[in-house]
Amino acid sequence: MSSHLQKQLQALGQPEARGMLTGIKRGIEKESLRIEAKGTLAQTPHPAGLGSALTHSFITTDYSEALLEFITPVNTSMEGSLQLLEDIHSFVYQKIGDEILWSASMPCIMSGDASIPVAQYGSSNVARMKTVYRSGLGHRYGRIMQAIAGIHYNFSMPQEYWNHAWESAGCPGEKQDYISERYLGLIRNFRRYSWLLIYLFGASPAVCSSFLGGLDRHGMEAFDDQAKSLYLPYGTALRMGELGYSSDAQKDLNVCYNSLDDYVDTLSSAIKQRHSTYSDIPSGQEGNYQQLNDSLLQIENEFYSSIRPKRVANSGETPLCALVRAGIEYIEVRSVDINPFSPVGLDDTQMRSLDTFLLYCLLQDSPACNDDEQLVQNANLKAVVNTGRQPGLQLNNGSDDIPMVEWANELLSAMRPIAEMLDTAHDSGDYIASLDCQLGKVADPELTPSARILKEMHDKNLPFFRLAMTYSEKWAQYFRERTLSTDVQIAFEEEAQRSLLAQRDIEASDDISFKHYLDNFFSQYEGL
């Protein structure tokens, strides 16, 4: 254990500090494709009974009308977040008729880009901007890539912890600057060690061949004689590799997390500078908007990253401007696959492991990163994505090649004191149990979700689509039979109606042209 980590643990181990760990805040954003009963992507619009995708607090859409996104508010209760996520699923099933929610990250049967309807949010300027942005993504990367689903895990430490940590460090500079620097340290360590999460929780080792549409198989093997499914024998999370959210144009975009200024400067430059690759896509000429602009990034959300620094933005404010205004408030982990073996795609054991891992990344020493180290990080991630369960797999720890299993055991062992502290704070043994569960997966790769998926496909002779469909139907029945309390039912119905009225108010209040609206929005980047 490093002396830095030991010092941080000693500070948190003090009686007056232990209770701070119960104040860790989490939020979950879970995406799910709506599919027809036969397993193809739903072509129906966002169900009216769910309210407005623009203004609903818990239920919206991501890229497509058929790609639902469920959002839990910030909560210190893990059980509360999972309960609400289940309640949202139950309510949605009341409103989608015979359609069901796809239980995997990699999509269902696809019929090309034309079969993926872009999300619509109404007639207001802000709604049109959201749709044009998605149209631009489709032109740039193809719509099929945008149909991949995942889970975003938002994590933050309580203000009480930051007060204690800042004072223990000798009150260096402004407190918010200190908080931002520490979150950036977490992000740098996350990027160093995120391959471990991919190994432990990756749940996308296979894909329906319709997803590729006859394109490059990326070295995957055919599961059956008809090649209806393709897979990597030792793969873990295809979603996080070349088949997932990747961009050739963004490969030269070297985002630095050594300081908030570096991060903001790099992304804002990519938004402000024209990129010739996208110059032929209409971006407002004669009123034709098929993308927001012809920059490398239309907005910062287009940057594909496994983790992001975040701050809740004010109405109309850009995410980068929010960070400049008030610093980092929380971090968003974007590398979590949907687990088909769980009704909502993740469970409390995984959440405890994520908390332990993220707290380790926060407390561990986190030196500045350079371009060479980022190349090593990318290579490690790629190796685990494609061959994570391969016996003898070697990774590079920054100085030497090391067996992945050895490094994984070292990291999980270093996290044990953190899990013990979390258990002490919560008066439980659940965090240690979760850690031991992950150690078990390192000892036996067959216990990982990716291995379980491939084993079940082989044992039951089920192609990926049929396996995912089986679990989708199982959880559909579970949620259709699950009843909501009267209070929860009323609250969801009222929120749906409130959101529809809120959308109408926004539409009625627009008093400038769409071009003027975009000009105002993008002018914010000029000061960055």
Describe the structure using short key phrases.
528 residues, alpha+beta, Creatine Kinase, Chain A, domain 2, 16 helices, 11% strand
Walkthrough of the structure:
By secondary structure, this protein is α+β, with helices and mostly antiparallel strands. The protein has a single domain, classed as Creatine Kinase, Chain A, domain 2 (2-Layer Sandwich), CATH 3.30.590. Helices cover 46% and strands 11% of the residues. It has helices at 3-12, 15-18, 78-95, 125-141, 159-168, 175-201, 260-272, 319-326, 348-363, 371-387, 404-426, 430-443, 449-460, 464-481, 486-509, 514-523, and strands at residues 25-35, 59-61, 67-71, 100-101, 151-156, 206-208, 221-222, 229-231, 283-285, 288-289, 307-310, 330-336, 394-396, 401-403.
Instruction: Indicate the multimeric state.
Output: single chain
Low-confidence stretches: none
The biggest beta sheet is recorded as: 7 strands, antiparallel
Output the structural class.
Answer: alpha+beta
Question: Residue-averaged pLDDT, rounded?
Answer: 95
Instruction: Estimate the strand proportion.
Output: 5-15%
Shape: globular
* Gap from first CA to last CA: 40 Å
Number of helices: 16
List the helices and strands and how they pair.
Blueprint lengths: L2 H10 L2 H4 L6 E11 L23 E3 L5 E5 L6 H18 L4 E2 L23 H17 L9 E6 L2 H10 L6 H27 L4 E3 L12 E2 L6 E3 L28 H13 L10 E3 L2 E2 L17 E4 L8 H8 L3 E7 L11 H16 L7 H17 L6 E3 L4 E3 H23 L3 H14 L5 H12 L3 H18 L4 H24 L4 H10 L5
Antiparallel strand pairs: 1-3, 1-4, 1-5, 2-3, 5-12, 6-8, 7-8, 9-10, 11-12, 13-14
Helix pairs in contact: 3-14, 6-9, 6-10, 9-11, 9-12, 11-12
